Amino acid sequence: MRNETFYKLRYPLVLALLIPPVYAYYLNMDLSAVGTSIFSTLAGIQASIFAIVFSVVILGVQLSTSQYSPRLPDLFRSDTIYLRTVGVFAVSIGISLLGLFAYGYVDDFWIELWMYFSGLLAIVSFVSLFDFVDRTLEQSTPEGILDRLEDDLTASQIIDQAEASSDDHCEPDPFLVVLSVINSQINERDAAAVYLGLDIISRRVSELLAECSVEMLEEAAPVGDSLEDLCTNRLTSTGETAVATELEEGATEVVSSLETIGQAGVDESLDRPVLLPVRGLSDLVLDLDYDGIDERVRGEAIESSKDVLQNAAEAGLWKGTGKATRYLGWQLANSVHVRDENQNYDRRYTSAVINYFPGTLRELVDSTADAIDDDTTNWSSPYPGRAHDSYSEARALQAVYISVAELTGAFLRYELKTGVNFPDWGHVGYGWVKAISELSDSGLNSFKQLWIGTTLYLEYLSNETPDGVMEEFNPVLRREVSDDEIISVIEQLLAEEIDPTQWLNFRQTVDPVEMPQTGYQYTFNTDTDKSFEDWLSHRQDVLAAGIGGGFVGQSEFAEMLQEEAESAEQDTAEDEDSE
Question: In sequence order, what are the beta bridge partners of 506?
Answer without folding.
Answer: 521
